[in-house]
Each structure stands twice: as C-alpha cells, then as structure tokens.
Structure of Short-chain dehydrogenase:
Amino acid sequence: MIVDKVVLITGCGGNGIGKSLSKAFYEYGFKVYSSSRNLESMNELSSMGINTIRLDVKDKLSIESAVNQIIKNEGKIDILINNAGISSFNTWIDMPDEELEDVFQTNTLGLIRTTREVAKHMIKERTGLIINIGSVAGFIPMPISGLYCASKAALHSFNESIRVELSPFSIKVMLVMPGPLKSEIVNKTLPKFKEIISNPESPYHPIYKELLDRPLTSIKNQAPIQGLTDSIMKKIFSNRIPNHMKYGPGSIGLVFLSWLPTRLIDFIFSRKFGFSKLKSIIKNDQTKNKDN
C-alpha cells in the first residue's frame, strides 16, 4: 500500500479519464484528491471515500484555493494529473468567441496555471510527478477540430519545456497522448456543432453532412478508458517513467499519417471530409456566374 503519496487529479466530473484514474489510484492506496468545478458530479467518488475538492481550471483563485487546501491538509502533493479538458469540433471561422476562449482556458491556460501552483510546492520538496493528458490531435492536426488541436499542441510544447526546467528538482513530467476514447467528451460537442454547420450562412454549409463525419469518425475509433488507466498505472510503477506515452489504435494511425508528405495528408483529409467536394461546388458556381 502506498499510503503516503498524495495525488491531485483535475477534471473528475462525469465518466471520463479523471474518474477512472481516481478509482485506480485510490485502490492502489494513494491519498487521492479528485477535483472538478462541480462537486456534485463527483458524488460516486466521494461515496467511495475519495477526497473531492472544487477546482475550476479556468479560475485562478479556485486553483489556488484547492491547492492550498490540500497542502494544509497533507503538507504536500506528490503527483499532479492534469486531465481537465474539453473537446471542440467546429470550422474555426464559424466558432463563437466564447467557445474559442473556453477551449484554450480549459485545455491550455488552466493546465499551465494549475501546474505552476502545484510545482511551487514540489520544488520545495525536491520531488514530484506531473502527468499531462494531451492528445494525438496535438501531434497531427486535423480539420474541423483546429482549435482543439492547437490547444493540445500548445500543451505538448509546454510539457516539453517544463520537463527540462523541473528536472533539476527531481520532478518528473510525463505526457500522455491517447487517441479517441469512449467518453462523453465528443458527444457533448455534437449538438452545437450540428447547429452551426447546418446554418445556411456558414461557408461550409454545402458539405455539412460530410463534415459531420469528422466527429463520428472519432466515435467509431474510440478505445476503452480503462485500458488507458491500466497503461498509465503500469508506467508510473515502472523502473523508468517514460517522457511520452501514446495509447489506442487511433493514436497509432495518426502517428503513421504524420509520416506522410503534407500534400498527401491534405489530399486524404480533403477527400474524406468533403473539402474537395466544396472546391468543386465553388468552381462550378464561379463558372455559372461568368456565363451569366
């Protein structure tokens, strides 16, 4: 039993990675603090005896309050798992400002602020482990999720930087890059996405049915969350914690895709998600206008 290790996990509301990791760490004997901006969303975890604490990664004061409360209770945080995140499927030109800001505040800036607040205490202790849940989408950008991919790519770059900066203090940093997972995160984005691209005012309206295939492709290729949890637990108990970890068949396919020439990647995405069709529609419209 590992009874003296304190773990803080963000984004534990719902039935996603956060909840699964909370249960796994708790079962291994860690002192777990599961966090979410909504305490009621973690009732199942609290009923198991897991500590739950309110932490909204978009709120600097909420982050500071949660971390300070854990330090007051335990005197340290040994492991931070930055899991809080939201998905986003949209054409960037149609994306409302509030969604744009929400994506980066949650997936990138919130993670950076939480890491900074926890790392201050880890530096004093000269030890710690930070696990950042990224995505293969940050490794190989895809259309119709450009802002999400950008937020994860920024997370990845931040991860690579702090891994070196924190190493003198014996703080290990690991980046986890899963492919599509069986969770609620994609389904939550679909209603708004359908509403926006089905609007006749959208420049992409002529291919909105093809664009819907983008999130549906992710859903079709989803891997089980428990498998990711098991893989993470296996890695942290290994003799040498890796810098990077990929998981899921979707991650393998996208990594392979990244090796192809960019023109070929563009061709594949354009054919699959309707952009080639839209180009033909626009070209035909221009021809008709000239004839008239």
